[in-house]
Amino acid sequence: MILVDAGPLIALIDGADHRHRQAADFLREHRQSLLIPMLVVAEVTYFLSTRFGVHTEISFLADIADGAFGTEPVAQSD
Questions:
Q1: Can you tell me the distance from the alpha carbon of 15 to that of 34, in angstroms, rounded to the nearest whole number?
Q2: Three-class SS of the chain
Q3: 31-66 burial, b if ≥16 CB within 10 A, otherwise e?
Q4: Which long-range contacts (CB under 8 A, 24 or more apart) does 17-23 make?
Q5: What is the pLDDT along the chain (78 residues), one digit of tens a residue?
Q6: Distance between CA atoms of 35 and 54, rounded to whole angstroms?
């Protein structure tokens, strides 16, 4: 499994990001083995809602709900 931080996810969504293509290629190649920590989900959704609007935030959350990405819960030891 590969834990994904906010940067590549934001680059994936933001087509103007200079690393968009690199993020898209990497995430497409490794999609089945990616996990997003729930704290990163919170960070990304906040960023998306403030920069791109609530519709983009909802779309990201819908992708997670539909199984496009796995998530990793926060453990007490974290």
A1: 21
A2: CEECCHHHHHHHHCCCCCCHHHHHHHHHHCHHHEEEEHHHHHHHHHHHHHHCCHHHHHHHHHHHHCCCCEEECCCCCC
A3: eeebebbeebbebbbebbeeeeeeebbeebeeebee
A4: none
A5: 899 999 999 999 999 999 999 999 998 898 778 899 999 999 999 999 999 999 999 999 999 999 888 999 988 887
A6: 23
Q: What is the separation of C-alpha 27 from the centre of its chain, rounded to a whole number of angstroms?
A: 10
